[in-house]
Amino acid sequence: MTRAPVRVLAVDLGTTSVREVAVDLAAPEPAARVLHRWRHQPVRHQDGSLRWDWHGILREVEQGLELGLAAGPVASIGVDGWGVDYGLLDGRGALLSPPYCYRDERTEGWRTTAERSNASTTALLDAQTGDWSAELLEAVGLDPALLPPIVSAGLAVGSWRGVGVHTVGSHDTASAFVGVPGAPGPGSVVVSSGTWVLVGAERPTADTSQKARDANFSNEAGALGGVRFLKNVTGFWLLEQCRAAWGNPTVEELVAAAAGVRGPVRTVDPADARFLAPADMEAEIRAAAGLGTAASRAEVVRCILESIASATARVADELVAVTGAQVDELLVVGGAARIRLMNELYGRHAGVPVTVGSPEATALGNAVVQGLALGQFERLGDARRWLAIGAERLVM
Question: How confident is the model at residue 109 (pLDDT cuts 50, 70, 90)?
C-alpha cells in the first residue's frame, strides 16, 4: 500500500548559502529535494564592519517557502542556522542593525568564547544542568532577563501561512549530527564536512575534565539530548578562498586534477591563524607548505585536501586520548561528503572505515526532528535506519 506523503520543509541557513529543502518522511528512502538555494556572503559596510545581509537572507527564505507551498501540501517547517553570530532586537522584536559576521575584525584581541543546540554555542550554559549559568552571566555582567527560555527541539512554536513550525536542532551542526546514517556506537566519530569540518562523538553527558579542556573540545548540546563532544577544523574555507581568486573553477575540476598528483604531498595546519582571513589564501598556503611558485594549482589543492584530512585524523586521535574509546569508523556527512577523494583521504589518514551519508544531512536532520514531532518516527533510531538506506561504506 502506498503511504501518503508527509512533506516537511527544512530551512538551512549556512554561512555561504540559504537553502530550502523538501523531504518526504514517508518515502521508501531518504531524499532531500532542494527547492531554492541562494549563495551569499558578508558585506563590508561604510564603517568598515563586516555584516550579514539579513534582509536579503529573509527575502530568500520567504521565496523558498513560497516555492515549497506551491509544490504541494506541507506538514511542518523547521529552521536551522549557523552559530556564533547574533542580532540585537528592540522591544517590538525588530532587528536594530545587520548582524556582524564572526569574521569581522572588531573582536581581535578580545577574550573569545566557545559555543542545548544553539544556546550551547554561547558558552553561557551550565554544562551539567543545561540551563543558563547564573555564575557566568554575573561574571560578564549580563542581565538574565535579556535571555530567552531554553526549549527543546520538536516543540510546536507557531505557524507560517497555516503550516505548523517546529523547533529543530537550530544550530546547523546539531541537525547534521541528527542526520547521520545508521546507529553511531562508542567508536563512531562524526565528521560534518564543509566550510568548517566538525569532528566529534555523541556522548550522554558533558566532559569537563582537564584533558578535554587542554585538548580544546567543546560540549555542545545535542538536538535530542546528550552532547556533541567535538572540535572545529578549518575545512573547505581554504579551497573556497582559492577558488574565488582563480575565477571560480568547479570543485569537481580542481579535485580531479588534485587526484592526479603523485608523490609526497606537503601539508599545513588548517588551524593556523594565518588562514582565518588572509588577503591571499593561495599565497599563504604556498608559504606555509613550502610550495614554490613552480608548484601547480593541483598541488595546492591536494595540499589543502590532505591537510584537512590530516587535521581530522588528529582530532580523532585526541578523542581516543580524552575518552579512552577506540575509533572504529568515521561517519561523514555534509556538503563535501559528495567528494569521494576527500572521503577516501579521511579514511586513509584515520586508518578506519568511512560510512558516507548525505551531503544534505543538515536538512535531513532538520526534517527528521520534525518527523519525530509529527509522530512519523517513533524514535531517533528508526529515523537513522531510514537515513542509512543508500549510505556508502568505504574500507581503506
Answer: low
The pLDDT tens digits for 182-197 are 889 999 999 999 999 9
On the 0-12 / 13-18 / 19+ scale of CB atoms within 10 A, 33 is: middle
Task: Write the CATH number for 79.
Answer: 3.30.420.40
Distances (CA, A) of 392 to 39, 94, 229, 298, 358: 28, 45, 25, 27, 9
pLDDT in tens, 153-171: 898 988 999 999 999 998 8
Number of domains composing the chain: 2
* Domain co-membership, 189 together with 314: yes
List pLDDT tens digits, range 31-69.
999 999 999 999 999 888 999 999 999 999 999 999 999
Side-by-side strand order, sheet with 329-333: 218-221, 227-234, 196-203, 188-193, 329-333, 354-356, 392-394
Are residues 280 and 245 in contact, defined by beta-carbon separation less than 8 angstroms?
Answer: yes
Q: Which domain holds residue 81?
A: 7-166
Residues 330, 194 share a domain? yes
CA dist., res. 67 & res. 70, Å (int):
5
- Whole-model pTM: value is 0.81
Same domain, 224 and 253: yes
